[in-house]
Every structure is written in C-alpha cells, then in structure tokens.
Design goal:
about 425 residues, alpha/beta, eight-stranded parallel β-barrel, three-stranded mixed β-sheet, 15 helices
C-alpha cells in the first residue's frame, strides 16, 4: 500500500523502563510501596521480566524487529542504593547496555527517572525536598559523565503529569485515592519518617506542589546533562491524550488541556524536544466527556488510531519544539487489536508529519508484557508475551505487524523514493 513518507533519520524504537522489566529493584521507593500494608499495588513486581540479566536478549529482539532506537531507563535506585553510595556495578551495567545498543544499530534513548527513585530519597521528602533537584542533578551528572557521549536523546522525567491526567479524567475510583493516602502514610511509618512519596502515586491535594517540584528537578537535570554534553538533546516526556471537542465542548477541552498539559508544553519551549506518550482519545461535549461508539481496548476506551497524530499536533503547537513519540501503544489482551492498531496509528502519524509537524521518531510501548505499576501483571501492552516461570519471550503477531510497518517505511528510504 502507499503511505506518507518520513524523514531519513526518523527513529523507529521500542520503549522500556527499568523497574517494570528488570526485576528485584529492592532499593527503590516503588518496591517499598509494593510491600507496604495496605498497598495500592495489585501485586509486587518481584523478578519482573528478569530484564536486568536478559538485556542482551531484549536488545536482540528489538534489533530483530528492524528498529534503530531503544529507549530504556537508568534506575537511580540501583546506581545510588544508599545516599552517597554509588554502585560501580550498576553504572557498568548501563554502560554495557548503551554499547550493546550501538553494536546492534540502536540509538540509545535514555530516561533518567522513569517514576522510580531510591527509597532513601522517597523517605527524605521525595521530589518536594529542598535538596531534591541537586540530588537528581548529581545522578544525571554521574550517568552523563559515564556514557553521555554515546547516547542519542535524554529524557529527564517520565510523565510528571500522569497523576493529573488520571485525576482530571476520573480514571481512578475514589476508593483508590483513599488507599493511596493510606499506603503512603503506612510507608512513612514503616520508614520512620514524616512523609513518604513516589512520582506516580501522588495524593490529589499535592498535585500543584509536585508539579513545581518536578519542574525544578527537570531544569536542574537539564543543566547537569548539558554541562557534560551541550549538544545532547534533552527533553521531558508527558502523558497526553488527544483531546477532541464536539460543538459546544471546546471550553471543557481547553480546561482539560490547561490543567494537565500546558504547563509542561510551555516548559518544553526551553528544551530540545517534547516527549509525547499517548494511549487514548477523549471527546468533549457541552456536558462533559462523550462516550464514542466503537471497539474498546483493555482500558475500556474506544480504540482510536488517529489519537497519536492529534496529541503530537497539539504538543508541537504549544511547545514549538520537535516531538519525540516516547511511548504509544494499546492495553489489550487481544493482540489482533494491537496488530491492527499499530500500522494505522503510524500511518496517521506519518500523514501528520507530511503536514509539517516535526517528529523525530516513534517508540512503541512496549517490548514485552511487564509490570504495569498498580495493575501489576494484569495489563498487557507488549509485543512479546513473557512466561512468568521461565521468563522466555515469545513474539505476538503484533511484533510482526510493527516490524512490517518499520520495514515498509525504511525500505522506501533504502529504495531512494523520498
């Protein structure tokens, strides 16, 4: 089939995250919360996908799909498991991963904080502590000093607006919010500290405080990374739905955008790119959100392949910088949905690029079914399934569907038809 074209240096990637697939991230705040009673987490992460040990296999899988980029996070809790104690082994590990990417033709896209942080950091005020920006900047400095010369893009924070998106969209029931508060209070008692907090379980009444704290941390991280390597593109990734208004729904749509996205999109004007992470479309009518007919995904929302292009368009309109799609996918146990969804979404994105919106690349979330935070292992977003006993990765039909799309676009480039 014919399709729009994409730039020759377009990044075709897969997105992953340390805590969600590495396993046994015992020094992290999320691990502590998973084992707190009560806990909002459905189950502990445990060994996850054994990704810390099987990283070479996973890079081979990505390369085997015909990709040229791999997004992963450097787990701060592994690098600095105790305050001021830096693990040489962990830094060696992540440096090996970077070099492993390069050896396979994969551009390393590094996330410096993918929600998780060290337990000691969470117990000492977390991101709202006065010294939090300096502590995070120290981590970014040591990582960039080690292998910043070999990475392609740096993402400081992953979805610092996620909790606002969930709350504005009423995605979590009131009892979940109450359990979150109880869990954090219990964690503080267990840690023997005045408070306990983590980046993706923020109480509703602390949203503004954390937004300001994340902004300070992002700026400090950007400065630290740039001080080591001024030409390395740095940005932040945000969770962003495609907000669509029916006649009379414009005011509601614009209020949602202002509450959830616009702060970070304006902040990104000082960055080199904005990371967009899109999973759904929200339709606004005069009276509120409108249920749209159509096939549903595992989140219960209507499958809308064009949502990514819409989210990318708005992000660029406000931020004014190029977009890097750092995550996009679909939660579903029915892989036939994913296999159909990915090509349609990519073609719509390419059509958006054809209109002039600058997009640096596309990273699908995710390589394999993994630990999906409070939902545990009950949510499937991977191109591969993972045997929970042997940890063997098995490709789903959607892996072939994504590989075929990548091959079609990259093949067009190779044939010199652009």
């Amino acid at each position: 089939m014919t399709h729009p074209t994409l730039p020759g240096d377009f990044l075709w990637g897969i997105a992953t995250a340390g805590h969600q697939n590495e396993g046994d991230n015992t020094a992290s705040d999320t691990w502590f919360l998973e084992h707190t009673s009560p806990s909002l987490f459905r189950e502990p992460s445990g060994p996850a996908c054994r990704g810390y040990d099987r990283w070479e296999t996973d890079l081979d899988l990505a390369a085997g799909l015909g990709l040229n980029a791999f997004r992963f996070s450097v787990e701060w809790a592994r690098v600095e498991p105790e305050r001021g104690i830096v693990s040489a082994e962990a830094l060696d590990h992540y440096e090996q991963m970077v070099d492993g990417c390069l050896a396979r033709g994969l551009a390393p896209l590094i996330t410096f904080s993918h929600f998780t942080a060290p337990h000691w950091f969470a117990a000492a005020g977390s991101w709202t502590a006065a010294d939090a920006p300096a502590r995070f900047a120290d981590q970014c400095d040591r990582v960039t000093a080690r292998f910043g010369d070999r990475i392609a893009y740096a993402v400081t924070l992953n979805e610092p607006n996620l909790e606002q998106l969930l709350q504005e969209g009423a995605k979590l029931p009131p009892e979940a919010e109450a359990l979150k508060t109880e869990m954090l209070a219990a964690a503080a008692r267990a840690a023997g500290t005045a408070s306990y907090a983590s980046a993706n379980v923020i109480p509703a009444d602390r949203q503004d405080e954390f937004q300001e704290a994340f902004t300070r941390a992002h700026r400090a991280a950007r400065e630290a990374i740039k001080a080591r390597r001024g030409d390395l593109p740095v940005g932040v990734s945000i969770a962003i739905a495609d907000e669509v208004a029916l006649p009379g729904g414009e005011e509601r749509r614009d209020a949602k955008r202002a509450a959830v996205y616009d702060h970070w999109l304006r902040e990104a004007r000082q960055d080199d790119f904005i990371g967009v992470q899109n999973y759904e479309r929200v339709v606004h009518g005069p009276e509120g959100e409108v249920e749209v007919a159509g096939e549903r995904n595992g989140m219960g929302t209507t499958i809308a392949p064009g949502s990514l292009a819409g989210a990318v368009r708005y992000a660029h309109e406000v931020a004014g910088v190029p977009v890097l799609v750092t995550e996009h996918g679909i939660q579903t146990a029915d892989d036939t949905q994913r296999a159909a969804f990915v090509p349609s979404a990519v073609h719509a994105l390419a059509a958006e690029v054809d209109t002039g919106t600058p997009v640096l690349g596309y990273c699908h979330w995710t390589l394999m079914d993994n630990f999906e935070w409070i939902f545990g292992y009950g949510a499937q977003l991977g191109l591969h399934e993972v045997d929970r006993v042997t940890f063997q990765r098995r490709p789903k039909p959607s892996a072939t569907a994504y590989a075929d799309v990548v091959r079609a676009y990259r093949g067009t480039l190779a044939a010199g038809r652009i």
